Amino acid sequence: MGALLLTAAVCAATSAGPAFAEPTTSAGLATATAADPATEPAVTDPTAAEPTTEPVVTEPITAQPTTAPVVTEPAAAEPGTTEPPTTPATGPVAAEPAPAPGTVDLAITVAFDRPEFFVDENVTARARVMNRGTATARGVQLVSSAPNLENTDDWEGFPTTREVDVEPGHALEGTLSSPVKATDNPFTLTLVVTVRSSGPDADEADNTVTVTAMVKVQLGGYTGIVYGDRNGNTVVDAGESLAGFEVAATVEGRPGGSYSTTTDSTGRFTFRDLPRGDYRTWFARGEWYFRPPLVHVDGVDDPDVVIRGALPVPDVLTAEARFDRATYRAGDVARLSLILTNGGSIPVPEVTAVCQASTATPLDLGDLAAAGVTVAAHSTSTTSVAIPIDASVVDGGALVVRCTFGAPPEVNGSVSAYAIARVPGARAAVVVGRVVSSVRPPNMTPRPGGAPVPNVKIYLKDQVTGAVVVRATSDAGGDFEFLDVPAGVYDVGLVGRYILVDPFTMHIRASESGTSHVVMVWAGGPDQPDPGPAPQPGDPTPEPGAPVPPATGPGQQSPPLASTGVNVTWLALGGLLTVLAGIGMVVRPVRRRV
Q: What is the pTM of this model?
């Protein structure tokens, strides 16, 4: 029975062996399952013998129903070897070769803003530098040339004083703006720009670019009439035309140049064949002041201008500036009156003003800043200006306004006015300076550079109240310092035989504590008296406007009596009568005892 069972087991194993055996070639099985079902599987080993029995796959691989993979044709295998399957490609790849690792590849592009420019205009070009490499470009700079441009070095965006670095994939942009060199003929402008770095560049062919633009010359002209306004009505009246007057036209900016002509018998003039540009018209002054108009000549529409001559304004005009209060606080609004008085017999038209103030708030001057005001003959014109007391005024301890008036001030004017008001509160911890001798006497232009002057008494006098606020004496090096100074405007004073070569004021601001001042002096002048005693150590610094303490000590006079409106003689007589009355009261009781 045992022999029978053993025989049956051996037969079963013999018939089932091929079904559970390993396939002969594993690579041939992988290629077949990754390929498209419609594609014949590639033969991986032509020398291998085909198996006599078909392999039975117990777990078939399911093919994806999506896009079929692209099978790359395998290379021919050496006999006796088996090639691994090729990874399917996802599609065609286009191909610019990648830069080598660690290389710099700069490329530059340049373009003008316009294809054409006029000779009076600034030419503008823009450059862009790109680093297409894989390493940082060190020491990048632009080098450009154009024979007909005034400037080719200042590319805004590229520092002119140092080189810059450009990281991989990054770009820098720069703008060049330059006037054209003067010329009378049109021409083609050529600009060559090169980008450089401190190291090698992978492709130098795109490091230099050349661009061109056309520069045109346009001619034109303008005409006008010149008259002297004798009655101040700003109208050309009979007999006011100025004949035989020399007129000059000067180009403002580019292309430069000056041209001249003369007015005819009717006061008219003409300029022809002027290069396109802006022109200022000038005259020999004589008895008249002219406001030169700015005329634009473009060769298309020739302007015709009327130029008025005015009589000298300073001969008849006076000015005054006045605040409504002497003292302000933070948050107040000061009211400034600008008062113009015409002492002449004809109106003064077109009067304007230029003002500077110790405030961060711009002044609204109304008509004085625009078309101007007309001040009638023998009359007064007043303009009111509101000025808020802001933080900058508080910091300076004073509100200061200086104005210059004229028609206009820079041509026919120099009539000035000044006003100051106190804004107490802020203080500077220390104010320092140095007294030096001038190398020129007071009657010449001051020039510093002299030696320091020691032992000079110097003081500051409040410009509003006239009180001496602080004083000091220069040391061996000429240095001095004032401590805990109220902010404000002060006149500088000296004691002794010294003259201020360039008299000036100090505007002490609390925020500028420690600011140094240079005081230039000339020795040998008349003796300047001491306006008051020197303060003792520990004495508080008086506020501006506080009275100076009375003088004491040997040689000092007692302060005078205050004015009360009562004569001193009557005071003496009253005292005598009081004494006599007292004697009488004492004598009367004595007589009664007797």
A: 0.58
